[in-house]
Specification:
48% helix; globular; mainly alpha
Amino acid sequence: MEETGYASSSVCNSSEKQQADYITALFSWWDKNSSQVPFIGLLWLHDLSQQQTDAFAKDYGITNVPDFKEYLRTLGLRTYSGTGVDKTAITTLKSELQKRGW
């Protein structure tokens, strides 16, 4: 697996809780499949700014789909606010890492 992520935006029918649940499920899956998947990369630590989101959407050639932009914008484990406030998923990530002694 190269990269993975889960958006937290309600526009994408998601939430911070669902994003955190994804982290838990991902580690559970990885526990069973680590011999075939030695590395998992979480896409972004921080949500994107609107300017970054627009640039990525342009790169993907999908500039007129607001839901796709919101998906991209909210894949981070911390908010985009200049200071980056932790979302529930980063606390879950830390817990999953700690369970495995990392």
